[in-house]
Amino acid sequence: MNWLLVVGGAMVGAPLRYLTDRAVRSRHDSVFPWGTFTVNVTGCLVLGVLTQAAGQLQLLLGTGLCGALTTYSTFSYETLRLAETGARLQAAVNVVASVVAGLAAAFAGAALARM
Q1: Cα gap 78→114, rounded to integer Å
Q2: pLDDT value, residue 1
Q3: What is the pLDDT of residues 26-82, one digit of tens each?
Q4: Confidence of residue 96 (pLDDT cuts 50, 70, 90)
Q5: Distance, CA of 48 to CA of 107 (rounded, Å)
Q6: What's the CA gap between 8 and 38, in Å, rounded?
Q7: Long-range pairs for 2-7 at CB < 8 Å and ≥24 separation?
Q8: Distance between CA 80 and CA 95 in Å, rounded?
Q9: pTM for the whole thing?
Q10: Are 48 and 103 in contact (CB under 8 A)?
């Protein structure tokens, strides 16, 4: 039955990623992948908060929701496309900013969970 929790979370996370990406892109006229950046940092924050959770909540929100919300493959693809199209600075900023912001969000989430 644990797999149903993962599926349930993913059923919310995947459309949420798509809708968030579209909403963010519509507000930014830039080659920088702000939508993917937003969902990945948000997912890191949620997973940070979930460090104190266990069992079913972790399966539903951590593995299911955040697993479908965040996207390493799209991050990698968009970074590759930036580099291939000559936007090497934006590609480098995407890598550094995503890692730094993602880790900061995870640490902030964990700190919030401990409060």
Answers
A1: 35
A2: 85
A3: 999 899 999 999 999 999 999 999 988 777 889 999 999 999 999 999 999 999 999
A4: very high
A5: 6
A6: 22
A7: 2/56, 2/59, 5/56, 5/59, 5/60, 5/63, 5/64, 6/59, 6/60, 6/63, 6/64, 6/67, 7/64
A8: 10
A9: 0.91
A10: no
Query: What is the SS3 string spanning 83-108?
Result: HHCCCHHHHHHHHHHHHHHHHHHHHH
44: which 2 tokens? 């890191």
Would you state the structure tokens that stand for residue 30, as one six-digit string?
Answer: 């830039």
Q: Which one, of 2, 6, 40, lies nearest residue 20 by Cα? A: 40
- Euclidean distance between the first and the last CA atom of the chain, given in angstroms as a whole number: 31
**Six token digits for residue 31:** 């080659």
Return the residue matching tokens 């912001």: 101
The answer to whether 38 and 98 are in contact (CB under 8 A) is: no
